[in-house]
Amino acid sequence: MFDLIATSAMGLEALVAKEVRDLGYECAVENGRISYKGDATAIARSNLWLRTADRIRIKIGEFRATTFDELFEKTKALPWENFLPEDAEFPVTGKSVKSKLFSVSDCQAIVKKAIVERMRKHYKKSGWFDENGPLFKIEVALHKDVALLTIDASGSGLHKRGYRAGQGEAPLKETLAAALVMLTNWTPDKPFVDPFCGSGTIPIEAALIGQNIAPGFNREFVSEGWHWIPEKVWEEARMETEDLANYDQPLDITGTDIDHRMVKIAEENAFEAGLGDLIQFKQMQVRDFTTMKEYGVIVGNPPYGERLGDKAAVEKMYAEMGAALAPLDTWSIYILTSNEQFEQFYGKPATKKRKLFNGFIRTDYYQYWGKRPPRTK
């Protein structure tokens, strides 16, 4: 069994933890990380299935270190040979927060040296290692004098799903887009609309969720090259994603954007994800949105008006959006923005707000809950 960590953006920890539990693993939640135990299959399944996690790391050790000697000796005492083959390529990155050992470059060099010493002894080698084999990205993270040593099992961050052929200037991370959908009351039998679809990330993530398609089905992971995870483990984990996908689930998902170039990029991205026929994209301004459908869900990440020249235009657009969406009393509407006056311009207080970070921008997720459908007897 391995000690696994799914890292998470601030504010999404509870969602990542729910996903980990849904995969069948008990977990503990801390700031920015969800810890759980699992075997090699858990490494594969976590990478393939977790929609809202940033990446999967394997914890090798955690200990107090206030001197470089202590960091060296305690790193050297860890069983690196269980993970790293003789030809492993193992770069070390680092970070340090509120710790006596604040020089990250020194910490990285010391951890590297300690691992090399340990490996030399194990592999009975006197010189340097060639490092021309599989990649093991090691991180030393110091926080309040506690060092956490991990190996990255994902490679590229999990938000890189492999479908994004093009993007706009301020693309939403796929992991956050999935979170925005999962924080709504949407179910695959309801209409779903993103009136600010940009490069199509939110509608594409909604379609993947709607058909239960694993977000990592279309990409590779660095841990697929590790000798101690048998190929069969990955084959079976990928077969599971095929077995559980519900490709026959009909979906009613629409993305609209004011910019016809973004609509074209969104269409290309949807085709790249294998969802081209499932999502309708069209050029439209939010003020022109109308629908006869009922009990749908709108999720939007509109411009925030962060740049001075944009503020007035964006606030006018918020007001137009409020007027256009006001008649949709059976629809639930969810809008992400950093504009703290959003409710005033939109013309209605939110049912609920949730604080989220879009990259480094602090935003609120404004939630307007629609009427519930009548109960059928």
Q: Class of the largest domain in CATH?
A: Alpha Beta
Within CATH, the superfamily of the largest domain carries the name Vaccinia Virus protein VP39
Low-confidence runs of at least 5 consecutive residues: none
- How many β-strand runs? 14
Give average pLDDT, whole number.
95
Look up the CATH topology of the largest domain: Rossmann fold
Give the CATH architecture of the largest domain.
3-Layer(aba) Sandwich
Number of helices: 10
Report the portion of residues in β strands. 15-25%
Strand order of the largest sheet: 2-3-1-4-7-6-5
The helix/strand series, from N terminus to C terminus, equals: EHEEHEHEHEEHEHHEHEEHEHEE
Quick take:
The protein is an alpha/beta fold and 377 residues long. The protein is built from ten helices and 14 strands.
Structure description:
It comes from Cytobacillus praedii. InterPro entries: DNA_methylase_N6_adenine_CS, RlmKL-like_Mtase, RlmKL-like_Mtase_CS, RlmL_1st, SAM-dependent_MTases_sf, THUMP_dom. Keywords: Methyltransferase, RNA-binding, Transferase. This is Class I SAM-dependent RNA methyltransferase. Residues 42-153 form the THUMP domain. The protein is α/β, with parallel strands linked by helices. The chain has 2 domains: 2-152, VC0802-like (2-Layer Sandwich), CATH 3.30.2130; 174-212 and 224-368, Vaccinia Virus protein VP39 (Rossmann fold, 3-Layer(aba) Sandwich), CATH 3.40.50.150. Helices cover 31% and strands 22% of the residues. It has 10 helices and 14 strands. The chain has helices spanning 13-22, 40-49, 68-76, 104-123, 174-182, 201-210, 231-244, 260-272, 311-325, 342-346; strands spanning 2-7, 27-30, 33-38, 55-64, 92-97, 137-143, 146-152, 192-194, 253-257, 279-283, 297-300, 332-337, 352-358, 361-368. Strands 2-3-1-4-7-6-5 form a 7-stranded mixed β-sheet. Strands 10-9-8-11-12-14-13 form a 7-stranded mixed β-sheet, with helices on one face. Strand 6 (137-143) and strand 7 form a beta hairpin. Helix 5 packs across helix 6 (201-210). The longest helix is centred in the N-terminal third of the chain and has 20 residues, at 104-123. The chain is elongated, with a radius of gyration of 23 Å.
